[in-house]
Amino acid sequence: MLVIALCLNGSTPAPGQTRNSAPADFAALAAGAEAARDADRAGEAIALYRKAVALRPGWGEGWWSLAMLEYEGKAFRPAAEAFQKAAGLNPKNGLAWAMLGLSEFELGQDASALQHIQEGEGLGLPDDPQLQHVVFYHEGVLLRRAGMFKEALRRLHALCFAGVHNPDLLQALGMVALWRAERGPADERDAEVVARVGRAECLAGQKKFDEARQEYAAAAHDYPRYPNLHYAYGWFLLAAQDMPAGYAELEQEIKNNPRNVMARLQIAATRYKVDSAAGLPYAEEAVKLDPQLVLGHYVLGLLLLDTDNYLRAIPELETVQKARPRFAKVYLALGAAYARAGREEDAARARGNFQRFQQGADKEPDLMPSPEQ
């Protein structure tokens, strides 16, 4: 359990509340709450803090202490409510928002947990490596559950590089590499394979690529038909710039699972601007297998454009633009396709949108599935 002995400063009274309301009662309650907290009488301290903040709702330090006591007692719902109060009273305190996110994580409120954790990181966290590792780990798990695998891998790799090594991290890394968004492994055998993939990825995060490759090769040998294992191994090999071996693993994944879309898109995306014509069949097959996947239309559109099939590229890229209207890079590609088709006004409009969203704070992440270490 994470314990953080920090407080919030700069709290102000709530509207209509003054610091002189029931001063004697409040002072006695606050003193009693702090004494009970310092003596590790958590239940008594919680009761007294609740009475104190009821008298003075603008007491930020009281809300913070109450929230931490609830969190340490695994009472995550009241903890979240108290952290929300504390963060509202001091909205520039990154730790308060991050702790709110951690509480929401425990409550299964993934979307708001990720939002608040990232808001806390943006505002700044204390220079405490243990705390930062806890926050970054949970962010990685939430990114994975949201299907944001590249971002999750980047965050979790950084923890391995920083020297963090524990079973939870290995499991999270294994699930990311296997492109799985569900809560966790299905059974003990599944957990063993996930952990082995996680060990390989943690080694990759530490830049120990030879050891990571050996770990991956052993896992692929022992579990040759395990879903997405060859995909994960292939992704790793492509990131290590061993393209032939990476493509071979991805082809094996397709052989094992003929309906695997992401293995095809990985091959197609990494051939873009290298041998786009060779990548085209894979992208076309991916779009046929999953017409709703925006990434497939994007990769196909780029490959068509790079092979001068701009008339076919335009509807693919327009599909992406309609689904992800704030994704800047699709406008860059559309601008080039429209220009080649002689649609100058549309090209100018697309280039303008590219500039607008490229510079904007709310641009979407890259949709390309390129592997990264």
Polypeptide structure, described:
- The protein is built from 19 helices and no strands.
- It has helices spanning 23-38, 42-55, 60-72, 76-89, 94-106, 110-123, 129-145, 149-161, 167-177, 188-205, 209-222, 229-239, 243-256, 261-271, 276-289, 294-306, 310-323, 328-340, 344-359.
- Residues 1-21 have low confidence and may be disordered.
- The radius of gyration is 25 Å and the shape is globular.
- It folds into two domains: 25-275, Serine Threonine Protein Phosphatase 5, Tetratricopeptide repeat, CATH 1.25.40.10; 276-367, Tetratricopeptide repeat domain (Serine Threonine Protein Phosphatase 5, Tetratricopeptide repeat).
- Helix 4 (76-89) packs antiparallel against helix 5 and helix 15 (276-289) runs antiparallel to helix 16 (294-306).
- With 373 residues, the chain is mainly alpha-helical.
List keywords for this structure.
single chain, 373 residues, mainly alpha, Serine Threonine Protein Phosphatase 5, Tetratricopeptide repeat, 2 domains, 19 helices, 0% strand, globular
Kindly summarize this structure in a few lines.
By secondary structure, the protein is mainly α.
How would you summarize the topology of this molecule?
Elements lengths: L22 H16 L3 H14 L4 H13 L3 H14 L4 H13 L3 H14 L5 H17 L3 H13 L5 H11 L10 H18 L3 H14 L6 H11 L3 H14 L4 H11 L4 H14 L4 H13 L3 H14 L4 H13 L3 H16 L14
